[in-house]
Sequence to fold (122 residues):
Amino acid sequence: MHELGIVSGVLDSVRPVAQEAGATRLLSVTLKVGEMTGALQDAMNFAWEALSEGDPFLEGAQLRIITVHPHSRCLECESEFDHDQFHWACPQCGSSLTELLAGRELEIDSIEVDIPDEGEAL
Fold:
């Protein structure tokens, strides 16, 4: 299950950034995940729950996933089109010479943290 490694890497990336900003708690992380990565949303949610359980900094934090659908350009006629994981041929000219423009993303889009106001008790 490579989703466990993905989520672990996300947490390893966001925790130090959040803590350096003075955050006392992580509230949410939003990821952009392309369909072509093969990452399963249910497995990522399961890994998120497993890795955040019992950690006061992470407990209750939400994982939000924005799914990025495949989008390609035909290298023959230059038309751009959306498609699924299995049908890459250009709908305009039928060419299979295409370039994937979107759908392979796996990136942190945003994080939301709790930063106490000055003078607020930690």
Observations:
- The longest strand covers residues 25-34.
- Residues 2-70+103-114 form a domain with the hypothetical protein PF0899 fold fold (CATH 3.30.2320.50).
- The chain has a mean pLDDT of 94.
